[in-house]
Write a structure and sequence with these properties.
alpha+beta; globular; about 160 residues
């Protein structure tokens, strides 16, 4: 496992990883309609552009295993963990933990006192094990479809 900084050349693999992970790993907690709204195949082109910009602007890392991207995460300079996804074939191998630990080290270096995120139903147990606490349960709307998730916070004090 190799953790490195995101580069723009990673974007195609990241967008594919996101789509495939949502549609396989998250299907136990969300309906097909919800998965399609969250990770629409039609939005791939838009994601390639907007995510490349966002990941370039944010503090962003990827994990490589066997020459492919096995996971990625990004956080704003204010401590909002925006995306954290692990390839469907690399689940439960410590990749998400390694990414969160790396982002936490960056947050501490920046003098931040907390990290926040919006976690899916699927990701909530992982974040709780990583020291995040639920601030509130919420329902968000994507493409006219309602999805439940959790606002979560981790104190760095």
């Amino acid at each position: 496992m190799k953790i490195r900084t995101f580069t723009e050349q990673d974007i195609a693999q990241i967008v594919t990883l996101f789509y495939e992970t949502v549609h396989s790993v998250n299907k136990r907690d969300y309906s097909q309609e919800q998965l399609n709204a969250w990770a629409s195949y039609e939005d791939e082109g838009k994601r390639l552009s907007t995510w490349k910009d966002a990941l370039s602007r944010n503090i962003s890392y990827v994990v490589e295993c066997n020459g492919e991207i096995a996971g990625f995460a990004d956080m704003t300079i204010k401590g909002y963990l925006d995306r954290l996804f692990v390839h469907k074939e690399y689940q439960r191998q410590g990749i998400a933990k390694a990414l969160v630990d790396t982002l936490e080290a960056e947050a501490r270096r920046l003098g931040l006192t907390e990290i926040s995120t919006q976690a899916s139903i699927t990701a909530k147990p992982f974040f709780e094990q990583s020291g995040f606490e639920v601030v509130q349960k919420q329902v968000v709307e994507r493409r006219g479809v309602k999805l439940e998730n959790y606002v979560m916070l981790r104190s760095l004090r």
